[in-house]
What does this fold into?
Amino acid sequence: MTIDLDKQRVAKIFYHLKDGKFLSQNAPSKQECYLFEYLQKHQDVLKEYFSYIDIELILGDGYAYFASYDNKEKKLEQIYELIEYLNFFYNYSASFGVGTHFSISDIEERLKDNATLDAKLKKIKTLSGDTLRAKILSLINKLERRGFVALDDEYLQRYVVLNSFEYLLAFFNAIEIKE
Amino acid sequence: MNIEKLFQNLNRHKALLIYLFEHRDRVVYASEVEELSYENSLEVLENFELIELNNEKLFLDSRVVSFLEEYIDGSDTIEISGIFEKIESIKHKLEILSEHKHKYKEIIPKIRRELKKIDATLFQNLDKLRVHIDRVYKSIDTFSLKLKELEYYKTRLKEYQNALDGFESFLKLHTPMMKSYYDHDLNTLLESIYENKISLSRSLIPLTQDVIEYINQAQKQSIFIEKILKLKELKDNYELKNATNIEEKVEEFTLRQETLRIGSKLHRDILHSETFYPTLHKISSKAKMKIHKADKIEFVAKEKKQDFISVAEIHLAFGSSKSSLIEFLLDYNKLKEKDMSEISTIYCKMILLYEDEYKISSEFFEYKNQKFAKVYYDNRFR
It folds into this structure.
């Protein structure tokens, strides 16, 4: 293996992924896009490099993350949480998916006219905040922290759904509901 | 009706007529257009049947609206069936021409006009279809409605394809006849129509594929949403584990929730030094062993001053290895200094003690003229 890795970039990739956050190809931040391109170009070397410190780098269709194989119960908790979030967002917009744009105000407006959606948001126990806006922000922050969405327009407080969302689609698609 | 007077009036009241055309989709009241009209404007225009006045409500005559829409293509509707009518009309004209050749000068310009109209209609309708389909996909949120609309446009595209095919057959069959009249303009037009037709066919393929793709995506998304809603329902009823294969699939859910911590106390300069990567590469195979608090063991060993080899400890370490027992022992750090007879003894001891946890294969490993059966740790005990 030739050692021609850019140390600064590798470090940036590591610090981006280490908290369980995704790196997506369609991130609004140019730096993240460059990092993803770099990661994609050197994926074999990087996979081996990280494997020496017992980290598995996974590269999906337009996204990358560090895998974890621990605690089953904790994973189930995460999955339950994600079901709640997806249930809310699909009720908000049926076309919610990679590339979708939405803003806090959009959701707030929709909640004012839709009592069912409002109730769904309030029922999500993992969200913090007393006001409606604070709860929406808490929900978006949770998805942003994992790298599923990113702030696209700071002025309009508009977010975009990233390629990493495909991971959730693939995972939930693989789940079979028994008849 | 005097044509000159008609044009004079059209010109005189053009501001009012333009306003009525631009607002043809809603009711326009007489009071609204006072500034645009003269004293007797409404009366004059009504006499010319250009507008209708009904209880202060003003309408542009439907013939004027149709004429202007067709002429400037302001209409948003997709009109494909008209193409077949125009083809039939040209066929009829060609039939007359074949029997009454002297009508050549009168009929050929009409055929040219009809051909131009068909060509333009095909172009305009393809653009409209593209815009409509894009609008449907992007702006309709309700899936059932979106699918219905997309299916509708799929049918319209099929109609369009039929019209294009119909026009092509017509051209194939009648071009030789039309060319036999040696009309330069008609021949040039036919050539340009032929080129346009190829470009239209090419554009139609990706557009049709897009619609099919849109339909597939919408169906897929719809199924996925239904699944999420069902999973949420099962979760709320505490039935998720029993009613799905989630417990199997949870193994495949590899998202990290906690921050990754690297237990290195190395200085940043060392971590970033040129030699760090090759060193890491070199020591990586031993990295796992270091986790077993090697310092403590070394301290105890020093204190006891014994050359004690714990078979149980080796057995535990072997449990996390994928290599065969003999290869593992030869590679095992603490046995590096031992001679082959001691290693053979440990090999036999371990097989006797942990026979139930090992799998003895039919393969052999040869080392220094000695043959060892390849023994592996049984995966069931990992």
